[in-house]
């Protein structure tokens, strides 16, 4: 049997029983070298027992690198001549290029899986983006609407507070300067009205602030009173005022009180209104003591 047939038989055996351990034992060094180049373990009868005792499946003999035979530098007569290489050896020799191709295919497949997972984690495909964009637009419009309503509530508070402040200063100047009797009497009348309105607004305002934001929706009647008091404040005062704001509604008012970030500002407004009420009361007491009020 020539060398090619022996190697062919070894390759057929390895192909049929891939999990088995095959070792070619021969004293022909050229045959051993050919077998090593083809990926077949080979040894001679002198080294057989050393091969079996070794825990590894390959033993290094001479200058031939059995652990990685394809990287070993060998002489030209150790290669099999062209045309005598069996198909199995050609398949074996091309294993590295095949593995490289398989690795590329695996990488492409893994890349596809990774892209699919990324799409799942980041959201739906572009076909469903229209719905999410529409939802985002609705949410944005709701936020803008809420901001506008909060601005309306704040503007109403600011308008009433400024109105009270200006009237207080005007009344103080008139009552302390002793002007004409008609103007003085009108100022006294306005003082009485303002004192009552501010005191009433203070009580309603304070009752709304004592309601916890958590249960605020259970007390709409209190906030209805506050809206009514603010909307009618300037009209009931009897003072002509061209700077009128749009009336404030119940829902925006309750939403404004529910926001915890507004609580500090609301409490500051209450303290300011209490100061106004106290100053109007002092002015009334001063008029009474000087007998200007009949």
TrEMBL record:
Pfam family, one: PIN_4
Residues of the PIN domain: 2-43
Gene Ontology cellular-component terms listed: nucleus
Protein name as catalogued: PIN domain-containing protein
């Amino acid at each position: 049997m020539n060398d090619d047939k022996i190697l062919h038989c070894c390759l057929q055996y390895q192909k049929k029983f891939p999990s088995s351990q095959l070792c070619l034992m021969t004293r022909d060094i050229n045959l051993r070298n050919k077998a090593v180049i083809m990926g077949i373990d080979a040894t001679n009868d002198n080294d057989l027992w050393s091969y079996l005792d070794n825990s590894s499946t390959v033993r290094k003999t001479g200058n031939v690198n059995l652990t990685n035979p394809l990287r070993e530098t060998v002489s030209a007569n150790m290669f099999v001549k062209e045309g005598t290489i069996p198909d199995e050896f050609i398949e074996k020799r091309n294993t590295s290029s095949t593995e490289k191709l398989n690795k590329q295919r695996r990488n492409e497949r893994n890349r596809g899986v990774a892209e699919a997972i990324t799409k799942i984690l980041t959201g739906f495909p572009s076909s469903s983006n229209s719905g999410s964009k529409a939802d985002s637009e609705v949410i944005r419009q709701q936020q803008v609407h809420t901001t506008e309503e909060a601005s309306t509530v704040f503007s109403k508070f600011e308008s009433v507070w400024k109105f009270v402040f200006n009237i207080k200063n005007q009344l103080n100047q008139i009552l302390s300067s002793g002007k004409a009797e008609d103007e003085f009497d009108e100022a006294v009348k306005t003082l009485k009205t303002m004192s009552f309105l501010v005191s009433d607004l203070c009580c309603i305002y304070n009752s709304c602030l004592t309601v916890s934001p958590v249960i605020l929706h259970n007390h709409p009647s209190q906030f209805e009173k506050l809206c009514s008091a603010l909307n009618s404040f300037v009209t009931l005062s009897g003072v002509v005022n061209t700077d009128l704001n749009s009336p404030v509604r119940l829902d925006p008012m309750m939403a404004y009180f529910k926001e915890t970030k507004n609580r500090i500002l609301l409490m500051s407004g209450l303290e300011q209104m209490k100061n106004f009420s106290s100053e109007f009361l002092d002015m009334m007491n001063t008029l009474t003591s000087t007998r200007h009020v009949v």
